[in-house]
Specification:
single chain; 152 residues; mainly alpha; 0% strand; disordered C terminus
């Protein structure tokens, strides 16, 4: 079974080693922490959980299991919730890091751009710089299309 980070961020599977995968994921998480409201969402969730738990204190013994459940979900579930909530933002940073490492991926949808001959993503039709084709080891202008360009 794939780890949670590989299920949420399939672009990580393009990396060769588990160490690279962990390093890229750690970079993306640091950038997400630094540039987004990840910690604010986490803090609001924890404060809400504590508030709900305190409100249930007055309810007597029948709600003891609910108080404990909220405590476990609040402190254990909030990091997982934030990971899901910010997975799109994390994927943006992963794609940028993959590109910096010489692995071209579409910045819009995450499609691996290896083996393409046109500078357009086949998944989302988003154009990208032809330099990325050279990174992937493809000829940016194959002989057939070069002949068509000469005719125009």
């Amino acid at each position: 079974m794939l780890p949670l980070r590989r299920r949420l961020i399939p672009e990580l599977q393009l990396l060769q080693s588990a160490e690279d995968e962990k390093a890229v994921f750690a970079y993306a998480m640091r950038e997400t922490y630094r540039r987004t409201g990840y910690w604010l969402v986490y803090l609001i969730g924890i404060v809400t959980t504590i508030g709900l738990r305190m409100c249930l204190e007055d309810r007597g013994d029948f709600a003891w299991w609910l108080r404990e459940f909220l405590l476990v979900v609040g402190f254990g579930g909030m990091p997982v919730f934030c990971l899901f909530a910010f997975s799109r933002r994390i994927r943006v940073f992963v794609r940028k890091e993959l590109l910096a490492r010489g692995i071209p991926v579409c910045q819009a949808c995450g499609y691996a751009l290896r083996g393409l001959v046109l500078a357009r993503c086949p998944e989302c039709c988003e154009p990208f710089p032809e330099e990325w084709l050279l990174m992937a080891g493809a000829d940016p202008c194959p002989s057939g299309s070069r002949a068509l360009q000469d005719e125009k």
